[in-house]
């Protein structure tokens, strides 16, 4: 299959994976342009793919790199803006224009975003996206054991944050 | 307080909402991805030509290198006898019956050098000069410059080449060179001005006054080129008058003694952007009949304060208002008023830099 046919095939198969990943990773629904960038970049760098991994995880790793670049740019702009206006607002790690279906989800998502970057990566991939440890290890280019260990630590860290906010009371009432 | 288990947390995480792209978004991206196909074809063609091109270039280099070597072996043995130096420009000038004049203003004086060339002096410093050159010396003179712009200038009475030479030394930023070719001899007169003492505008003014005399009579060059600027079309502004890909003006037909609104459009690349960013927008209008320079820009049009001005004030690096559809990089609305009918040349400057000119007929 020619490269351009392959990339269209991949788009049809995986666009929603990329779409969801970017939404949760970037904290906004306004990610269509970036979805397109991911596939264009994938097309341009097809020679790096070489069939060694699963196209899905390869594309997600591209998406992650692009998202990081974007966030960095945005942060710099925001920093500039904040310096200009005033430094009154609390710092949030990721700007949130993403509104989730309920407050409980919102709190959980916020807690995930407050994790340190490696915990956050693995929490979004293993947790929110529900990828297997193998897939996650390919995306992050980590060993599987590192994925598992980091995920475990991320969960512990999340628990601490959420218990402090009495988030567990919510979950109990809902699960009962 | 209830205990929160790992399982609570992981199962809750997996229950985040799954979004789906809508069909429009999907199709838009698929459409853009389809365009990649064309690129791929071009790419592979380019790859082929690249290989061919590199061979051509290699052959060219080898050939020119061998010619160079041949040339040298030929020249070195008999050089003192065979290649008698042609007369220098100064020699030619002294043998000829030609001399030149240039209009001096109060800012600088003319000093004659021993060899017959002339230098411009201001407060004991050289700020420019004039030297007669033969063809070969002219080429050499251009080759040693840090050439920034080189163009054949229209609107001078002698064939004129203008070059802009970047110096960036303590005292000289640029040198503006004008080379006038004498219609009567093989001489070229090199007139040069140092910035920042001269500006592109003042240099242009003085350079235009340069005249060659032979046997005591002024040598009339070709008639000054007063051919009207042509009309050209762009995608969005319709028809403009001026020079395609450089500058154009849109508005009503030019009529004497009335104020009308015109928009200037500027085209070009990096160098032009730099020129456009260098400050005030100035227009000087020269009437073909009288040769006089007049103001045509109107400020505060339609009010009591309406007046003719040389320039509109713009700070340096003020934002440019280009239109990507037509490819223009900047446009400036203006009001203009011409004192009398006839053919006029409008010279456009930004700050001290010259952008170009337009020749129009005013009815």
Note the topology:
The complex is a heterodimer of chains A (176) and B (363).
Chain A: H1 3-26, H2 32-44, H3 46-49, H4 55-85, H5 103-113, H6 117-128, H7 133-140, H8 144-164, H9 167-175
Helix pairs in contact in A: 1-2, 1-4, 2-4, 4-7, 6-8, 7-8
Chain B: H1 6-13, H2 23-82, H3 89-95, E1 98-101, E2 109-112, E3 118-122, E4 125-133, H4 135-143, E5 147-153, E6 160-166, E7 174-181, E8 188-194, H5 200-208, E9 211-214, E10 217-218, E11 230-234, E12 238-243, E13 247-250, E14 260-267, H6 270-276, E15 281-287, E16 293-295, E17 297-299, E18 307-309, E19 311-312, E20 328-336, E21 342-350, E22 353-362
Antiparallel strand pairs in B: 1-9, 2-3, 3-4, 4-8, 5-6, 6-7, 7-8, 9-10, 11-12, 12-13, 13-14, 14-20, 15-16, 15-19, 15-21, 17-18, 17-20, 21-22
Kindly describe this structure:
The complex is a heterodimer of chains A (176) and B (363). Chain A has 176 residues and is mainly alpha-helical. Chain A has two domains: 1-97, Orthogonal Bundle (Rna Polymerase Sigma Factor, Chain: A), CATH 1.10.1740.10; 99-176, Orthogonal Bundle (Arc Repressor Mutant, subunit A), CATH 1.10.10.10. Helices cover 76% and strands 0% of the residues of chain A. Chain A contains nine helices and no strands. In chain A, helix 1 crosses helix 2 (32-44) and helix 4 (55-85) crosses helix 7. Residues 87-94 of chain A have low confidence and may be disordered. Chain B has helices at residues 6-13, 23-82, 89-95, 135-143, 200-208, 270-276; strands spanning 98-101, 109-112, 118-122, 125-133, 147-153, 160-166, 174-181, 188-194, 211-214, 217-218, 230-234, 238-243, 247-250, 260-267, 281-287, 293-295, 297-299, 307-309, 311-312, 328-336, 342-350, 353-362. The model of chain B is unreliable at 74-84 (pLDDT under 50). Chain B has six helices and 22 strands. Chain B has 363 residues and is an alpha+beta fold. Chain B is extended. Chain B has two domains: 89-218, Mog1/PsbP, alpha/beta/alpha sandwich (Protein Transport Mog1p, Chain A), CATH 3.40.1000.10; 230-362, Immunoglobulin-like (Sandwich). The chains are: A mainly alpha (176), B alpha+beta (363). At the A-B interface, helix 1, helix 2, helix 5, helix 6 and helix 8 of A face helix 1 and helix 2 of B.
């Amino acid at each position: 299959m020619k490269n351009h046919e392959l990339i269209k095939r991949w788009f049809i198969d995986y666009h929603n994976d990329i779409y969801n990943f970017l939404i949760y990773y970037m904290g906004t629904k306004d990610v269509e342009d970036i979805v397109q960038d991911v596939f264009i970049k994938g097309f341009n760098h097809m020679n790096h793919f070489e069939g060694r991994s699963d196209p899905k995880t390869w594309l997600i790793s591209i998406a992650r790199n692009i998202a990081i670049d974007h966030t960095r740019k945005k942060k710099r702009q925001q920093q500039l803006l904040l310096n200009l206006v005033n430094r009154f607002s609390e710092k949030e790690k990721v700007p949130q224009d993403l509104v989730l279906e309920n407050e409980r989800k919102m709190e959980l998502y916020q807690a995930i975003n407050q994790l340190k970057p490696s915990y956050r990566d693995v929490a979004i991939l293993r947790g929110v996206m529900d990828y297997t440890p193998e897939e996650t290890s390919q995306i992050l280019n980590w060993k599987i054991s590192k994925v598992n260990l980091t995920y475990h630590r991320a969960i512990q860290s999340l628990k601490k944050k959420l218990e402090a906010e009495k988030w567990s009371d919510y979950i109990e009432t809902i699960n009962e | 307080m209830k205990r929160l288990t790992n399982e609570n947390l992981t199962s809750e995480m997996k229950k985040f909402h799954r979004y789906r792209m809508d069909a429009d978004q999907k199709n838009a991206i698929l459409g853009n991805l389809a365009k990649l196909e064309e690129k791929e074809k071009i790419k592979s063609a380019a790859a082929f030509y690249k290989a061919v091109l590199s061979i051509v270039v290699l052959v060219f280099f080898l050939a020119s290198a061998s010619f160079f070597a041949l040339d040298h072996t030929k020249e070195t043995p008999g050089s003192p006898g065979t290649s008698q130096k042609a007369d220098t420009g100064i020699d030619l000038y002294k043998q000829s019956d030609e001399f030149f004049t240039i209009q001096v203003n109060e800012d600088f004086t003319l000093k004659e050098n021993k060899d017959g060339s002339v230098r411009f002096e201001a407060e004991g410093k050289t700020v420019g000069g004039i030297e007669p050159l033969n063809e070969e010396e002219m080429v050499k003179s251009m080759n040693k410059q840090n050439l920034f712009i080189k163009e054949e200038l229209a609107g001078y009475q002698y064939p004129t080449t203008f070059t802009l030479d970047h110096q960036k030394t303590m005292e000289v930023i640029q040198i503006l060179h004008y080379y006038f070719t004498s219609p009567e001899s093989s001489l070229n007169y090199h007139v040069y001005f140092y910035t920042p003492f001269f500006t592109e505008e003042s240099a242009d003014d003085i350079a235009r006054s340069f005249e060659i005399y032979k046997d005591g009579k002024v040598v009339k060059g070709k008639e000054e080129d007063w051919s009207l600027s042509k009309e050209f079309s762009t995608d969005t502004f319709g028809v403009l008058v001026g020079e395609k890909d450089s500058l154009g003006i849109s508005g009503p037909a030019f009529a004497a003694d009335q104020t009308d609104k015109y928009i200037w459009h500027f085209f070009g690349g990096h160098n032009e952007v730099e020129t456009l960013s260098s400050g005030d927008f100035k227009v000087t209008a020269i009437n073909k009949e009288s040769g006089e320079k007049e103001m045509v820009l109107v400020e505060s049009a339609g009010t009591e304060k309406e007046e003719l001005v040389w320039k509109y004030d713009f700070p340096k690096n003020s934002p440019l208002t280009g239109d990507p559809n037509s490819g223009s990089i900047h446009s400036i609305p203006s009001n203009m008023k011409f004192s009398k009918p006839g053919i006029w040349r409008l010279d456009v400057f930004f700050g001290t830099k010259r952008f170009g000119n337009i020749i129009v007929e005013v009815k």
